[in-house]
Design goal:
Keywords: Mitochondrion, Ribonucleoprotein, Ribosomal protein, Transit peptide. Helices cover 43% and strands 15% of the residues. The chain starts with a helix and ends with a helix. It has helices at 2-38, 44-65, 103-117, 168-176, 187-192, 215-218, 234-243, 265-280, 314-343; strands at 100-101, 124-131, 145-148, 161-164, 181-183, 200-203, 245-250, 253-260, 291-298, 304-306. The strands form 2 sheets. A 7-stranded mixed β-sheet has the order 1-10-9-2-8-7-3. Strands 5-4-6 form a 3-stranded parallel β-sheet, with helices on one face.
Length: 344
């Protein structure tokens, strides 16, 4: 009997605990549902919090991107570098500021590099320009393609040109002035079948609509009035594109060949001046200088930074100086007006 009473005492409390927990569950659920009914859930609050977090992240990213420009003019050494100039001939390049050379000096250095490297004398010389495409407010200069006449051409071959015209007299004039092929819309199928290929394609304004099937085929070579490949004066266009040099803007950079290294230094200088002048003409001078920096190099040499100020036309230099002076005067007048107001 004693054993049975002990086992009963052990089992009864366990059953009571199980009974009360089972009874308590529905009470808690009902209370929770009633609480939820009293206070409705706001689903839009979480979305607003996420938007605030995104805004804070974008503000932080902008703060990181907009780094302060440090003025190193009055410092004993550039910020973050070892010194203004190396003492020895052998040094680590990243510890010193990049030297900027005069254009004539840089060309002489490229010629000396070629002798030391035993590389070909007729290797191409390239120029790389970084452009400031910004205009007023949020407007920018659109990327462009331009064709110019270099003072001293480095090409031995004449460009192959196709002229689209429906006028037989214009077609005859085009062939007399050096066009490889001249014709109307019948040339479209031959070009699509790769029976006819050319370096440039010129057209009269009346036939451009019939050439639309060639747009995907020709892409950047498709005739456009902005590039000067659409017009009525066919002899003038042929004179430009037969021996002209074409360059294009990719993003904010112009990278094009200007000469060969075996050409005289004066010829290379004149070609560089011609390209820089043509590039600078695509942005109004009132919005500031268009070219931020210039680098020249040959195929086997390193890039040399050159002074861009000496390459710009004299008129543009004067305009840039007058714009800066006008801005400075405006700032000084504004500061004087603020001081007088404070004194009053």
């Amino acid at each position: 009997m004693a054993a049975l009473s002990r086992s009963a005492l052990r089992v009864v409390p366990r059953c009571q605990s199980l009974f009360f927990t089972c009874r308590a569950a529905p009470v808690s659920c009902s209370s929770l549902t009633a609480h939820s009914q009293q206070q409705p859930v706001r689903s839009y609050a979480a979305a607003a919090a996420k938007q605030k977090e995104k805004k804070e992240e974008t503000v932080q990213e902008k703060a990181v991107k907009e780094r302060k420009k440090i003025d190193d003019k009055n410092r004993h050494k550039p910020y973050g570098l070892t010194a203004w100039a190396p003492v020895d001939d052998v040094y680590i390049v990243r510890h010193y500021p990049r030297p900027v050379y005069e254009t004539s000096v840089a060309i002489e250095m490229l010629k000396n590099f070629q002798k030391l490297d035993f590389s070909p004398e007729n290797q191409p010389v390239y120029i790389n320009l970084r452009l400031d495409m910004k205009l007023e407010k949020k407007k920018k200069v659109d990327p462009f393609v331009s064709t110019i006449h270099l003072p001293h051409s480095f090409k031995s071959d004449i460009n192959k040109i196709v002229v689209f015209t429906e006028n037989p007299d214009q077609a005859r004039i085009a062939m007399e002035n050096g066009a490889a092929v001249a014709g109307g819309a019948e040339l479209v199928e031959k070009i699509l079948a790769d029976e006819i290929t050319a370096d440039f394609y010129l057209a009269e304004p009346d036939i451009v609509q019939k050439l639309l099937p060639l747009k995907n085929k020709l892409r950047k070579k498709f005739p456009k009035s902005k590039r000067g490949s659409v017009g009525m004066n066919i002899p003038k266009m042929l004179a430009l594109f037969k021996s002209g040099h074409e360059y294009m803007v990719e993003d904010i950079y112009v990278n094009t060949q200007v000469a060969t290294l075996d050409m005289p230094k004066e010829y290379i200088l004149k070609n560089i001046h011609a390209i820089v002048k043509d590039v600078a003409s695509h942005k109004p001078a009132e919005f500031g200088p268009f070219i931020e920096r210039a680098i020249i190099c040959s195929r086997s040499s390193e890039g040399l930074h050159i002074k861009i100020e000496e390459l710009l036309p004299q008129e543009e230099k004067k305009e840039h100086v007058s714009i800066k002076a006008h801005c400075l005067r405006g700032k000084t007048k504004a500061s004087v007006g603020c001081r007088t107001r404070r004194q009053v």
